[in-house]
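Checklist before submission:
- one chain only
- standard amino acids only
- sequence pasted in full

Submission:
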Amino acid sequence: MINANILRNKMLSQEIIYQNLHAKNFAAIITILHQNGNALNSDTSLDFAINLFMDELFKYAINASKIELNELNHDLDILFMCHTQKKYLLKDDQLLKLIHLLYPRVDVEFLYPVAKTFSSDSICKKIVQSFDSRKMQLEKERIKYSHQRVQYAENNNVRGKKFETDIRQSDNVFWVKVFLRSSDLLDIVAKHIRKLSSVGLVNITQKENGNSDLTIYARRPFSIEETREEVNLTLENYFSRSPTDPIFKDEVISGISEVAYFQILDYMLKLGVGLEGFRSLANKMDEERYRDYFVNYLDSLSNNHTATGETFHGDGKSDILIRNREKEVLLVAECKLWNG
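Returned file contents:
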């Protein structure tokens, strides 16, 4: 005997499908499919109503104007997600029609797992070929990039200290000397040290023997010892980045990328751990100086991304804002001191 509640729910679902189909409210019907799944197809009358809905949906999409199709695209995307997430599995003919409507608007990466099952269909063949071509290109770039990083590592894998600092004085004037093993990095290192809160002036000093080093003066009211600690911490973090560490890709990232987002968080965590080793310096930092410390480091990670502090964004200011070359925002962060 059929349960009365089940029968009532089926009749209700069937009525809702016909009502919304008449009103062309496709989203409401897709919601029913998502919530109830393929169990709906076990009832003949419901299965008929769903098939009718699918036919009307695809017919409407094919004949829709550009404006109507733009409004419908979200519903088509949700229907596709229902299938890929196995909330409601479409029949093969329905799925094929849906793929034709989604391509090329939807990226082939999302269509490929489904399209590859329709090997004889011309559109699905294009999707598979495009996906395979992209995969091969990415593999070539990965190999090329890997070789470049290995070459970089071989060229820069020198033993011993990468840098050394020392405090000098003359006539009650104090300064920090920074000696780098590789003089090629002087300009880059000087650029980042100039951004430190405790640094007033940075000069590249040329010696008579042709060697060069950095001369750094403290900014008032910081002591020369505080400046040296901050310089040491910055250089340790800079040189601790192995050539095999993950970095931002050189190509421009479109929109917000989860990969880039979590890479940034990983670097911030790594930097925070490094700061824990300099308690005497960290104890003197307030919220603004912590922010500047993180911003300067994050800004050095990639030539194609910029990190700025106290930046206007939307209706207010952001403590840390990271953008790519297209000025697209990858990360917005607020800095707060935690006393837990």
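Reviewer check: Residues 1-8, 242-256 have pLDDT under 50 and may be disordered.
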